[in-house]
Amino acid sequence: MNTKAASATAEDLPATGHATAAPRRSPLLWVPTGYFTMALAYVMLTSVTAIMFKNLGMDNGKAAEYASYLILAYTIKPLFAPLVEMYRTKKFFVLVAQVIVGVGFGCVALAMALPGYMAIMVALFILLSFVGATQDIASDGVYVTALDSRAQSLYCGIQSLSWNIGPIVASGGMVYLSGWLHTRVFHHDPKVFGPEWIESWRIIFFIVAGLTLVMAAWHLRTMPDGAKAENAPSSLSEAWFILKDSFITFFQKRDVWLMVGFAFLFRLSIGLLEKIGPFFMVDPVAKGGLGMSNEQLGLVYGTYGLAAVLLGSLLGGFFVARRGLKPTLFLLCCAVNIPNVTFLLMALYQPTSELVVTAGVAVEKFFYGFGSVGFMIYLMQQLAPGKYSTTHYAFGTGLMGLCMMVTGMVSGHLQEALGYVHYFWFVMAATVPSFLVTWFAPFHHKEA
């Protein structure tokens, strides 16, 4: 799923961009690959790591908790975004970040052969999450400042599609490949979790490392430098002043706490499902799961499920454009939350048919994509407008990221305490705050 926050800098980039001339190279050469590379790093760090931890024998509580820590850097990136604006070019930060991410994933693969590899690996992941967040900031900065407003609109769909290919490759392709290697190449039992999984996951991280470094080499040749944004801070003290002012003006907005509640709670139930859904798929039937292999998980959850998200997002966008956000927002909230019942039904009946499981996942993911469009549009049209619109939009998406991190940290421990059936009942109960904040969400600005 696309949780990428707008990587606003404190100077608040103007909507028309700041390019003074048309880019020399076609954006088709770097926009798709740039956003794919961003998403690949983000999903590998925040989602795929949870599945890997599970495969290596970690319990659900710790696996979900450790993977959720890695969301922190992406949540707080507006706080260090001004530093990217102050030094060198945005392209420079993109390239350095991608090289570090590529080398870092390679180091993860090497570290997995060492005694006590888990602590080393987690430390590397934490470092790479901050580097990955910096890549997001710089890549968005290139897009906003190298393209004029017409080009930004023209390539917006390609940007979004390219980002969403990243989760399909990571959560779908890489998870599938890990299972295929584990069973077909190394001849291990796919239903037994433990150190035997190290061999296949080492190969996965070497592949991702190589792919990221290839993308860095490609962007060295094709990506424009990006322009300095208007009113960019020239010193740390100036950056701090602007950031402080953006916080003050944010909390001066009318009904700001209702909007904060909306930003934090709209996806509450999704945060509780994000890490546990894949665990439920691969846990043995005796433990209340569905007993699927990584190969099946990669296809059902990471490929078909994410394709359903993409289709839902497209149709949700058309629906909101036709009907307007205010009259449809509560319906969109229902679309996000009510279909979570499919996981409860699967936990109750534990279907053995892959077709039935795929249908259940696809229904939940489709409606999640359909309804989530309303969340992003609300942040853009109601929360963000003002002196620091881009920064305030980033605050809103940061609150959403904070919700995903907090719920992810506790989700595994709750699931272990409750069991899958009772946990999914709890997820359904957690939809109530989402309905409440959506019902009372204020509308103070006319829709665009």
TrEMBL record:
Its main location: membrane. Residues 27-446 form the Major facilitator superfamily (MFS) profile domain. It comes from the Bacteria. It is a multi-pass membrane protein. One of its GO terms (cellular component) is membrane. Gene3D superfamilies: MFS general substrate transporter like domains (1.20.1250.20). Keywords: Membrane, Transmembrane, Transmembrane helix, Transport. One of its GO terms (molecular function) is transmembrane transporter activity. It is found in: Membrane. The chain crosses the membrane at residues 33-53, 92-111, 117-139, 160-181, 201-220, 256-281, 301-321, 328-349, 355-380, 392-414, 420-441. Coiled coil: none annotated. PANTHER family: MAJOR FACILITATOR SUPERFAMILY DOMAIN-CONTAINING PROTEIN 3 (PTHR12778:SF10), SOLUTE CARRIER FAMILY 33 ACETYL-COA TRANSPORTER -RELATED (PTHR12778). This is MFS transporter. It comes from Pseudoduganella flava.
